[in-house]
């Protein structure tokens, strides 16, 4: 800061250019990192959806198949 006087003797203070608020800088850095992580996770998810094979379904047990057929009214073979 510099103090000056004008031709009438009035003093005034000239402030230098202020930088960015430190809190704002921290907020921007943390926000940028969070967005970067989210974007990276989304990109990996999309890549995995395209390249990984589909999950194999568990085989249905014979007991469950028999129970389902009985529910539908179809008798199980051998009965």
Description:
It is a single chain. It contains two helices and two strands, in the order ββαα. It has helices at 22-51, 62-72, and strands spanning 2-5, 11-14. The protein starts with a strand and ends in a 7-residue tail after the last helix. It is rod-shaped. With 79 residues, it is mainly α. β1 (2-5) and β2 form a beta hairpin. 0% of the residues are buried. A two-stranded antiparallel ribbon has the order 1-2.
What's this, in brief?
This protein is mostly helical and about 80 residues long.
Please name the defining characteristics of this protein.
79 residues, mainly alpha, two-stranded antiparallel sheet, 10% strand, rod-shaped
Spatially, the strands of the biggest sheet line up as 1-2
* Major sheet size, sense and barrel closure: 2 strands, antiparallel
Unreliable parts: none
Q: What is the distance, rounded to the nearest whole angstrom, between the alpha carbons of the first and last residues? A: 99 Å
- The ordered H/E elements are EEHH
Shape: rod-shaped
Helix content: 40-55%
Helix-and-strand structural type: mainly alpha
Radius of gyration: 36 Å
Percent strand: 5-15%
Rounded mean pLDDT score: 82
Number of strands: 2
Keywords: DNA-binding, Membrane, Nucleus, Repressor, Transcription, Transcription regulation, Transmembrane, Transmembrane helix
Region (Disordered): 53-79
Main location: nucleus
Function: DNA-binding protein that specifically recognizes a negative element (S1F) within the RPS1 promoter.
């Amino acid at each position: 800061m510099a103090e000056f006087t004008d031709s009438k003797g009035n003093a005034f203070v000239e402030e230098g250019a202020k930088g960015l608020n430190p809190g704002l800088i921290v907020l921007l850095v943390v926000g940028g990192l969070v967005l970067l992580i989210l974007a990276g996770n989304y990109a990996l998810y999309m890549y995995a959806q395209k390249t990984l094979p589909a999950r194999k379904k568990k085989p249905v047990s014979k007991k469950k198949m028999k129970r389902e057929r009985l529910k539908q009214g179809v008798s199980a073979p051998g009965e």
